[in-house]
Amino acid sequence: MTVMNLDKLEVWVRAKDFALTVYKDVIPHLPADEKWNLTQQLKQAAQSIPANIAEGHGRYHFLDNVRFCYFARGSLTEVQSHITLAQDLGYLPDDIYKRMTSHAESLGKQLNNYIAYLKRSKQGEREFPSNYTVREESVTYILDNPEEASANH
Length: 153
Hints:
The protein is an all-alpha fold.
């Protein structure tokens, strides 16, 4: 996979743009004493959204891709939570909060649609034969009788 392939994946492009907006429009409003707390949490969660979409896109089987999209969706919700906290603490102007909330909701819908598409397409499904199963051989367990164990010691 190349970056060019990611550039064609609209949900990744929008997630990357959302992360850039967090960096450019939200982070500058946070006070210096939040540098290692809220600021760091916001940066990590915002970066995680496009990064997880990219990692899932690089996986061959659709279930791996879906799993990483779930991680991205969780990170998006985390960013929403941090932005709400920043708003409640009085750090963000109302217009930025409303714009970010709207952007997050729109990205969330697109991400959900992408997940639904992946589930329908089942890309890579035939790579793992459906008649294979994973099973373990049963193991016989030997249980010591506590009364016998104490009598022998």
